[in-house]
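Q: What structure does this chain adopt?
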Amino acid sequence: LDGFILLRRKDITELKAGKTNRFQQPILNHEGLLDQVDFDFRAPIESYGSFLADLSHDEIAIVEDELAEPQQFLIGTVSRVDGHAATINHFSGVGRLVEPKETITLARITSCQIRTNYIQIYQRHFERVKKL
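A:
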């Protein structure tokens, strides 16, 4: 219901569905929310590099290194991906491009997100600004 997230398999400690999930599914279906989910979405998920390299040049992603001190949170478009790192055209919370571009080592990435509600707010904002 809220975009897509790619996680390292080794970081997933548990998957479960219980009574709450079974209760919520018919409600979500009745509200038409399940119809909005792109169940046909496919992306290369062999690695963070293949996932990021496959994004369109204008798709906003969140790329994180949650183990860094301080944690690294980058939101922006992917400028470049090579064998070891990704370069992100990232922006601040107030929508200002941050220079220089940030390079993050692929091995340090703990999650990548696309098409979340949070990201879509910025995506629509930048599309509106571009039209002005």
